[in-house]
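Table 4 source record.
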Amino acid sequence: QAQLRESGGGLVQAGGSLRLSCVASGIRFPIRTMGWYRQAPGKQRELVATITSGGLTNYEDSVKGRFTISRDNTKNMVYLQMNTLKPEDTAEYLCNAESVIATRYWGQGTQVTVSP
């Protein structure tokens, strides 16, 4: 059974750092793109960052220069290093994976809370 499992969320003060990790398992086909999305209460889910199997990255404008996405293809893992965190980064962060046949998978999410 396909599964994405996130870890690394928590509570941090503004200006601090967190590192999120996500491991994918049980996905039959190779994974083309992995990424992170976030959803704050009362808001729509938004893309944070994505990375292809070849290492091409894409970031939402508000996190450019502060967040770094990386990936270990051998372990089916994706990471999100978050620096200089702001209160507006507070959200549930969800891991996403898309296989080469365009099937998408989601994790259950990990909460990130940034206090002023």
